[in-house]
Each structure stands twice: as C-alpha cells, then as structure tokens.
Predict the structure.
Amino acid sequence: MKITGTVAKLFPLIFIAACGGGGGSGSSSFTASSSASTGFPASVSVASPLASTSSTSQVASLDRWQKMPLTQKIQVAWGLVRHGEWNALAHLSSGNPFIADAYAAGSGTMSESAAFVALLDSILAGTVPLSTALDPSYLLESQAPNANCYGPSLNYADLPDGALPNSGQLPGGDLGIWQSNVGNDPSDTACAAAQLNTKMRAAKRSVHTALVLLAGMRYQAFTSATTPTAGASSNLLTQMNALAIADVTFTTATLALSSDGLTWNYVLGLTVTTTGPSAGTYPVNLTLSNTQTSDTDYSGTLQLTAENTVNAGNCPASPGPDRTVTQVSSVKYNHTSTSTTIGQRSGTFCGDSTNLPTTVYTVDNQVNPAATFVGGTGQGWADNFSRFAADFNPSTLDGNFVYGWQAGYGDGHTRTFNVWTQTTAGVRAGEAYFGFGDDISTSDGSIKGMICNWAGPGNSHSYADYAQRQALAYDDTSGKWLVGTSGSDIRYAPANSCQYTDAQHTGGATFWYDRDLTNSSTADPTQANLIVDPANGTYPFDLMDKGSSVDITAEITGRGFTLPANF
C-alpha cells in the first residue's frame, strides 16, 4: 500500500477535537457502543475562564508521537475511524494540529478549558496514553497561594480605627487587589485574572485529574469490548491496573449503565503514593453519574474524596503536629451544544474519609458548605472551602462566572470574584469585580461590599458599599487577559472607611502603611501616596461605588453580570 504525503502528515498531533460534544459526532449515531466518548462528559472543565496556555504545553509526549513509526501512526488513524472520530479526522486532514480556531490565538495559545477538553477527547480516542496525561499527586491538592498583586501582608503604624499607638502587619489574603497587574507591570496579566487563575489552580488540578482517570477507564471499557449494556455493569479493575501508572494502585473500577440506557455510573477507587513533606499512600475515591440524551446533551455530578496529611490548620492535631484531612470536591454540570452550566465545590474536612459527616453532601449531591467543623465530633470542614459557578457558551467561552472562597469555618465572609466576558467582532473583553460576600454556607455568589480593614486594630466587618473593578481585554499575542481601556477601580486605604483623607493627615493623624510594598517596618514620611481622598486628584480614593443603583450588588448586575445558577 502506498502512503501519500497527505495521509502521512495527519499524524504528528495529539489534540484532535473541538469543544463540542466530545467524540462521536458528525455521522455517528448515539448508541451505547458508538465510541468511547459515549456516556462521558467530554466537554466539562473547571479551569478559570481567564486562564490560557500554550497549545504545545498541553501535549504530554508530542515529540514521542511525532517520532512514532508509520505503521503505528496508521493504527492510530484506523482507531479514529473505528471510534467514529469524524471531527478529529476533519481537523487532521485540514492540517489544523490543535483545536477549533475559536480558541487558538496567533501565538499558539488557547484557553485552559479548551486545552483540557481536547486532552479528554484524545484520551477517549486512545491517542494519548493515560500514564502520560496526569500527575496523580494533583488529586491531593487543596489550596493555592495568592497572586503577587493581590492581598499582600502589609506593615502599618497608627491605624486610625484602633487605640493609638499601634503597629503590626496585616495578614496576607485580606486586602483584595492591591496592584493592577502581576508584578505591578502594566503589560502583564490583570490582577483580577491572575488571582482567579491562581486560586482556582488546586480545584482545577484535582478535578481535571479525576476526569482524566475516568476518561481513561471509559476508554478501557471500549477498547476491551466491556462497555456495559443497559442494566448491566463491567468490572475494569484488571484493565486499569494493567496500565501500570506510577504511584497509583487501583482498588475499585466499575462502569454501569442504567436500564434505560441513559445514565452512566462510574466508580473508581485508588491509592496515590507521594513523596516530600506529606509522604505517604493515600486513598482516593471518584464517582461520576452522567446522563446523556444525545451526542451534545448531558448532565451529571462528579464527586471526589482524597485523604492527605497537613501540618497546620484548624483540624485537631493528633499525634504531633500532623493533621489527617480529607479533601471533598464535587462538580455539577449541564451541557448542551449552546450552553454549559457548572457548579464546583471543594472543602477540607477533618479526619479521614470514614470521619465525614452524614451531611457532607446536599440533596443534589454537591459538597455541603454548611457541614462545618463541630468540635465534639471532630467532623466537618474547618480549613478551606471554595465554590465556583459558570454559565457560558461552550463554543466561545463567553458568559458569567463567580468564584468565592473562605479561609476557615469561623471566618464568616467569602472573598468573591464576579466575572463576565463577551466576544464582539472577534475581540474578547469583559469585567471582573472583587469584594466580600456572605458566609460560604449561605452565599449565592453576590458581592455585598468591601471590608477594607479586616484584621487591623478596631476592624469592622460591616460592608462598605463598594467593590473593586477591572476592565479586561484578551491579548491574542500573549494569550493574557490585560487591563482594558476603562482601567481599574481598586485604590483604597486599609481602614474601615476605606479612606485616609488630606484632612486627617494634615490634622495630625500619623497613620502609615507600606503601600509601596517596600517591606519597611517603620513609618516612611516620603510615601505621600498614603493619602486616599476622593477630592485628591493625585492620590484619589478609587473604588467602584453603587452609582444610582440600590446597592453595589445591583450596580454589578447593571454593568452586565448575571449570577450563575449553580453556585
């Protein structure tokens, strides 16, 4: 058989599908055995909507695949045909080595969400070995640091809300957006985007790794001809352990299909062995229930529990400083060809997975933010809890997004980002807002105001009717979300009023704080920019106020944001 140049050039690629309904679209029909992607939520991702990545960085072993012998490349191509991956073949034959043009930028960047969906499709098609597509330690991640432009630790002296004299350092994480851009560099990522991307990293890594493993199990069922028929189940433990994934041992692996042939139930248990400060072997359990009514329409819930050991936090320490915790996560989703809704929750619960409270999940199978720590039982989440919700168009990623987090069960307020994005004439833009909201157990994702002095002397946790705002503009060249033309409204003083006026300063107040982040611990009178005064054009007070709206929540809504449903 003669191999033409056109056929030969189809193979140096791993990413093979657009962000639609996974594989099996085009002329393939919706049947239980049409492809490995049938019954799997192949377009679900919990990546930050403002995160981009290099397309080549997502390919686990691109160089190895490029050097693959021609006979093996032919086998891969035949596998795509056998699986009904018509969209993949169309992209290959057109010479497009990655995914749909809607996500690709001139620099070879794409959204992290799109890149992950492409990776899932490749696993389901069998063109990416599962062992090269994941880091199992990501399943154990529970929290991420802040971006360097957000919430710095801040030295202060004579903060006017408290008894004078006073001095100290405000803890990191409470001060919101402090500088407009990463590294205070106007050409770098907008701080709202950087902080959202950073805070979502742990949830993204753990959930995406779970989905990668479950996609690999679905492919094993397909390739071993053990895809269950309606009303039946398949045990895939032998096939999963035969993959010999480093640091992973599978303990349970079953796939079942409901009697009506619509709901696919996945159960995957494993242990992950880690090194480093928390070295050990930890159990992880994944369950996924996915109801699929067509190639593009499906809904369901993913649940993940992962045990780990930490040496700090609010959970009881026994023995010694180490604390056993269980990270519990859930993803609730509904996907069609034109809309996707996602709700993701994650909390750090005290004890191992046998110590989880009976209220750990809500009636709709999401992690329950009201299942807080109870000292007498030692049960409940105590350290961190986060919630993410999104309503967006899967083809453009335009939509509304909210992310809120709470650092401990006794904190009482969420730190919250509201974000909307839209594409007009090929240009992507949007706005991001930051502020504080209700306790994570009751919050609907709304920003209720700013708390400008969270932890300093004389602090008040009553809301000031403001929020921080940043205009966002996507830069195709760098793949970054930059500050847009209408700029930022982020400047305030760390006092209950959010201001430090000229009148206060000239009237004898001696308030000082390290606004320039020089790490100075003594008052520096040369920092004239300590002033934050609405009447001072050089050193203004500049937060977004409610305008003519009834409150700041309504003002954010009036600017184009709509709360997603699944927060």
